Amino acid sequence: xxxxxxxxxxxxxxxxxxxxxxxxxxxxxxxxxxxxxxxxxxxxxxxxxxxxxxxxxxxxxxxx
Length: 64
Hints:
Blueprint: E1 6-9, H1 14-19, E2 28-29, E3 34-37, H2 44-63
Antiparallel strand pairs: 1-3, 2-3
């Protein structure tokens, strides 16, 4: 049985990960994913930024 040591967070926007490299320096990332370690508090400020960006992107797509 494999033990997971992180939560996979998928902002669905590779542009977010690229634009926030400095803030994500302490996390393992890929083009469209952020791994949040289970042994650390959730980075709520970072999560809020992702949510706000996704809302903005979704609204812009629905207008276009």
